[in-house]
Amino acid sequence: MDKVVGQKSAYAYLYPAIDPFDRRMLDVGDGHQVYFEQCGNPDGIPVVVLHGGPGGGCSPAMRRYFDPTVYRIILFDQRGCGRSRPHASVVANTTWHLVADIELIRNTLGIEKWAVFGGSWGATLSLIYAQAHPERVLGLALRGVFLMTQAELDWFYGGGAGKFWPDLWDRFTAIIPPEERDDLIAAYNRRLFSSDRSEEVKYARAWASWENALAAIDSDGATGEAPAEYARAFARLENHYFVNAGFLAPHQQILHPDQMAKIAHIPGVIVQGRYDMICPPTSAYNLSKSWDNSRLTMVGRAGHALSEPGISAALVHSMDLFGEQGHFFGV
Q: Is 84 a known active-site residue?
């Protein structure tokens, strides 16, 4: 298990900003249009980037974790968020729809195999995709691991993280009547899907603020007010997936031995902030113990955010190694 401590701004470790050479809207069925783009070297090593949330969408900074002369970088906005349409829709929007969309993008681009890069929910989706299609994955680079378990949801929405951030926890829970606070995910669900636009935005902003305030280790708890449409998509999609336990049956749980056996041969790197309040390190640690062909890099002074300097440094270093040698582990 490596230890990495970042000192500089995250941007100091990233490659220069680049623009896509290809942008498209792809009809994935069920009334959904999914935005995807390609950057970097059209003949390079393909890598698909899976954003967090669910509902977070991609950002231009995500293009910069890869040497653009080495990698063919594919980013896309998952159903219902970012530039994909319809916005904030949870109709025909499950984990398995997203896995099918990833495969459709791969087939549309004529890619046989690709590396998969994802953080938070993107790490969840990366693992589930790899377990469903192991023959298509060259390697996995994961950050801020979330395994879509009830224990993780209980930590973040049941008061665990609130013990470290009692002021923000109070703000998150205070707008819910006391008699509903035993299940905050369900309580927020009723309001995020009330069909009252102003009510949905109000509770979406509260939902997003609770998560965003805890993302970075240097956070002072102030997040500002998220744009209404972003917050509404982010909160509705996250809540929809969490109410439905990620649409995973017991035998489909990521750490189920049968599922882990499917990716045993795939090389992986796991980059985890030691002080991640959103996705506690125990998930990354347990994943690494179940996956012999992985390496866990625990970043000593970092929280959850992709923008943490140590996390960015470790991810860029890992992708450089993979580009040079086809694995994440050095010589």
A: no
